């Protein structure tokens, strides 16, 4: 999977935390509350620096065990540094280095729910189908949040917005390390796979809404779009530069906002659960 820098993950964390659907988080917390203490085990795929753990922990019951799983040793070490072995209310943290896209089955023994943030839009249909099979065999649920849904808009429009979003979404379907990525189709695909094996699936919209207070994040987000747009190549590079230049200029002159669509998903009660 394509890597992400610690600085980018830190920059996006505040908007990630305020964007998640609280109803699904509370439902996850209630599910864990109903389990025996030793069974309250979460495996966080692509944990990065531990943002999902930090964001969810205030809503979860006492005694949760987090197994934080990532292939990037630097990010895993950052998670270890920021979280430590123990968290509030008796939470325990383990840090596991591994490749979710590799041949080895995921470490699902004893796991009640697998979690992930901004992850599945990078994954292939084959990976997602395999994960659902493994979840069913382990009797584990899934909480997947902030899966990109292909929608993007700005409070101050530009004539190239539609073409930019189209090309960005095309790039999202390219291989990100798991095979051809599902991109904006990830949440619907996951939902159908999970329902097919007996899971109860709930979903909710969780859009990023970046305002003037998120100017630094908006700048990084815009600059991060340059390479994907140029690699798709539908728009001339001069058009891409002009569009990004316009957006950066608007940030300096006006209170421009940007909304990026995401979907949160909670799946519980599979056939083997």
Automatic annotation (TrEMBL):
SUPFAM superfamilies: S-adenosyl-L-methionine-dependent methyltransferases. The keyword Zinc does not apply. Its EC number is 2.1.-.-. It is an enzyme of class 2 (transferase). Keywords: Methyltransferase, Transferase. Residues 43-134 form the Methyltransferase domain. One of its GO terms (molecular function) is methyltransferase activity. GO terms for biological process: methylation. The keyword Metal-binding does not apply. This is Class I SAM-dependent methyltransferase. It comes from Roseibium aestuarii.
């Amino acid at each position: 999977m394509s890597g992400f820098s610690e600085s980018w993950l830190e920059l996006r964390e505040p908007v990630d935390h305020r964007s998640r659907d609280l109803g699904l988080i509370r439902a996850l917390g209630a599910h864990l509350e109903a389990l025996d203490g030793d069974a309250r085990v979460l495996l966080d795929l692509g944990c990065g620096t531990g943002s999902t753990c930090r964001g969810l922990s205030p809503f979860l019951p006492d005694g949760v065990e987090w197994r934080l799983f990532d292939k990037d040793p630097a990010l895993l070490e950052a998670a270890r540094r920021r979280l430590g072995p123990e968290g509030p209310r008796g939470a325990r943290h383990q840090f596991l280095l591994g490749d979710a896209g590799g041949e080895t089955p995921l470490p699902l023994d004893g796991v009640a729910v697998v979690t992930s943030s901004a992850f599945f839009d990078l994954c292939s249909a084959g990976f997602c189908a395999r994960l659902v099979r493994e979840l069913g065999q382990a009797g584990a649920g899934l909480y997947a949040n902030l899966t990109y849904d292909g929608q993007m808009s700005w409070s101050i429009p530009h004539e190239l917005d539609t073409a930019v979003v189209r090309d960005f979404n095309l790039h999202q379907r390219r291989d990100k390390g798991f095979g051809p990525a599902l991109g904006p189709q990830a949440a619907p695909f996951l939902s159908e796979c999970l329902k097919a094996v007996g899971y109860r699936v709930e979903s909710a919209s969780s859009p990023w809404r970046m305002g003037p207070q998120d100017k630094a994040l908006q700048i990084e987000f815009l600059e991060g779009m340059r390479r994907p747009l140029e690699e798709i190549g539908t728009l001339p590079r001069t058009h891409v530069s002009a569009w990004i230049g316009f957006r950066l200029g608007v940030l300096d002159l006006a209170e421009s906002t940007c909304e990026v669509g995401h979907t949160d998903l909670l799946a519980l009660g599979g056939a083997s659960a």
